[in-house]
Design a protein that fits this description.
CATH architecture: Roll
Largest sheet: 5 strands, mixed, barrel
Distance between the termini: 48 Å
Mean pLDDT: 96
Order of helices and strands: EHEEHEEHEEHH
Number of helices: 5
CATH class: Alpha Beta
Low-confidence stretches: none
Helix content: 25-40%
Length: 171
């Protein structure tokens, strides 16, 4: 059993929570980072949903790829599934990513299930601001989630102009 890769585009980038032996910047084509998932638990409630990130179809996304030793596959996949598949709004996929080194590899990625009731769809920045502002859940205010995400992306040198616009409008 060989090593495998995991692609992170949100909190997995700065808080992966699993053992890995290498990290590289990477680009995933065919999906983009988006506040496209209604949060009923961590950043909102059923009555006042917030928004959290998902990988939605179209465009591309720069994130981080983590190489995991093959002997940790069962442990790491169990951890990721427990973390990412709580409400089954994400679909686990093996997708092709291009590492910063130029190599193309397959990586475990979590993309939004567009048929799931938590899928918010493609929102413009103003709509996203309306849904984020004032929403809060078990993990805190939704605004904090957006500001924290933009701050972490900035610290990694990753620009996401749409998300930066949402954060600026929330300020």
């Amino acid at each position: 059993m060989g090593d495998f890769w995991v692609f992170g585009y949100g909190s997995l980038m700065w808080r992966p929570g699993f053992a890995h032996v290498e990290t590289q910047r990477a680009r995933l084509h065919g999906y983009h980072r988006s506040l496209c998932i209604h949060s009923f638990i961590h950043r909102g409630t059923e009555h006042r949903p917030g928004l959290v990130l998902g990988l939605d179809r179209g465009g591309s996304c720069i994130g981080l790829a983590f190489r995991v030793p093959g002997d940790l596959e069962a442990e790491v996949l169990a951890y990721l599934r427990e973390r990412e598949l709580v409400t089954n709004v994400y679909l686990e996929r093996s997708l092709s990513i291009r590492l910063n080194s130029g190599e193309t590899v397959r990586a475990i990625s979590y993309v939004v299930d567009r048929s799931h009731r938590q899928y918010a769809g493609a929102l413009d920045a103003d709509d996203a601001v309306l849904r984020v502002r004032g929403a809060a859940g078990q993990s805190g205010p939704n605004e904090e989630y957006v500001f924290n995400t933009v701050s972490h992306l900035d610290s990694l040198g990753i620009r996401d102009r749409w998300l930066e616009t949402v954060a600026r409008k929330l300020s």
